Amino acid sequence: MIPDIGRTLTKLQVHHVQTMPLDMRAAFAGDPDRFERYSARLDDLLLDYSKCPADTETMHLLQQLAIDADLEQKRDAMFSGAHINATEDRAVLHTALRNRSDAPVRDGGKDVMPQIRAVLDAMGAFATGLSDGTIAGATGKRITDVVNIGIGGSDLGPAMTCQALSPYCDGPAVHFVSNIDGAHIADALAKLDPETTLVIVASKTFTTIETMTNAATARKWIAEAMGEEAVGQHFAAVSTALDKVAAFGIGQERVFGFWDFVGGRYSIWSAIGLPLMIAIGPKRFGEFLEGAHNLDNHFRTAPVLENLPMLLGLIGFFHRAVCNWGSRAVIPYDQRLARLPAYLQQLDMESNGKSVAVDGKALEGPSGPLVWGEPGTNSQHAFFQLLHQGSDIIPVEFIIAAQGHEPDLQHQHDLLVANCLAQSEALMRGRTLEEAQAQMQANGADVSLAPHRVFAGNRPSLTIAYKKLTPYALGRLIALYEHRVFVEAQLFGINAFDQWGVELGKELATALLPVVEGKEDAEGHDSSTAGLVAFIQEEQKG
Ligand SMILES: O=P(O)(O)OC[C@H]1O[C@H](O)[C@H](O)[C@@H](O)[C@@H]1O
């Protein structure tokens, strides 16, 4: 945490210890307006945090925390193009990618909007050409399938959003290959016809080993089917490293750029979103950007305690740094948001999983929490046991749409909603021993087993609800989470926009490859690593 918030944080901690455990059941019973007072809205987007252990004083102190941390000034610095990514000396302007206003956005004095609009237009023309068949494969056949090869931020965003918006997908089918494991690309290509397939190589740096290796495999697949000269018509690329793309042999007109002011995990709004645009069309992709832009405007202007990302960040920080809860579960009650937890894992944990502060000193206090989850209702039948009765308290974030996309299956949507709301109610209410005993007695059951049916309750959750998962609503939801991560980073004192922690593993993998291949011996490696290499080499024989 940053020193500036020390005094208020201490007050929060003292207040928390004095009032804890804040009895939420009693709080609801004693305040019929608790939902009204501890929820906030932006149009049809609702954040209900009334089932978190906060009272008036908590919220007052969290508001003070925002003031002490200069949150509004830091937010404004991000939007204005200040180089807040200090370790890489870069601006952080993913918000410019979805700027739908006429206002310029400057990085180092230069307005970045013209180049952003030019790439968006080029993407739109390409996506439209694929859809209407004017951009075809080398043998003249229409492109029916698109394979995006990328990893991390160059995969999770398009993969998550394409699945989320499948009711809006009317373009070519999109597929995603990310893992270095050859099984991934082998399984993907096995289903496809090279004559009707376009491959997008998506990599900010165009050096990532997984992406470059899979791209080479795909290139061979295309060339073997139709000859080397067909490659150009079956590839496109997305990158900030245009020189490296040219070396791969992809024509200029099929290269879509973005810029260093866009972090990988914040890049879905850039050309990295090309698979999404191809799938849903440029118009709906525009609505997706519009939703995020709307949330940006809200983040920039709403007072702290009415500001959804500020509230989400302050509550998240409170849970982590004051309540000392080390993880949070994100449970979308939407099968199409199945990849949202994975997307948020990168967004949140790659941003705030750091023990070094912005100034290079050791972080005082915790870093960001572990983020995990699975869709409801499946997760209820898997790990909700632990959420309800385990010894650790894990705040849950429920996500639910009022409307589904299947009007004929309204009953199933009602069941989905009922389950979502019931879980947060159960976590909060719990069930006392007396209640369990009374219920068992009424049912003629063995009352001695009542302790197994006790739920401590008072377990925190918040709910994010909205009308329907449209492109607009999804853009808004992602932007909400992006800014939440930003808010928490300011309070932790972390630079949310670098990711040095992923480098060591990459370096060691490069050093180990010749050992695995038997070209070097394992000298200098620890006995575990050497022993594992020996085992695998032995088992590879025969
Ligand atoms: O887009 P690329 O340059 O290929 O990078 C892909 C991913 O790999 C890196 O290791 C980072 O951890 C991610 O932040 C990044 O999104």
From TrEMBL:
Annotated localization: Cytoplasm
GO function terms (MF aspect): glucose-6-phosphate isomerase activity
Reaction(s) the record says it catalyses: alpha-D-glucose 6-phosphate = beta-D-fructose 6-phosphate
Pfam families linked: PGI
InterPro entries per UniProt: G6P_Isomerase, G6P_Isomerase_C, Phosphoglucose_isomerase_CS, SIS_dom_sf, SIS_PGI_1, SIS_PGI_2
Subcellular location, principal: cytoplasm
Domain of life: Bacteria
Enzyme class: isomerase
Biological or metabolic pathway of the protein: Carbohydrate degradation; glycolysis; D-glyceraldehyde 3-phosphate and glycerone phosphate from D-glucose: step 2/4; Carbohydrate biosynthesis; gluconeogenesis
Keywords of this entry: Cytoplasm, Gluconeogenesis, Glycolysis, Isomerase
EC number: 5.3.1.9
Active site per UniProt: E350 (proton donor), H381, K506
Entries under Gene3D superfamilies matching the protein: 1.10.1390.10, Glucose-6-phosphate isomerase like protein, domain 1 (3.40.50.10490)
Protein family according to the UniProt entry: Belongs to the GPI family.
Function of the molecule: Catalyzes the reversible isomerization of glucose-6-phosphate to fructose-6-phosphate.
PANTHER family associated with the record: GLUCOSE-6-PHOSPHATE ISOMERASE
NCBIfam families: PRK00179.1 (NF001211)
HAMAP family from the UniProt entry: G6P_isomerase
Protein name (database record): Glucose-6-phosphate isomerase
Natural source organism: Hoeflea poritis
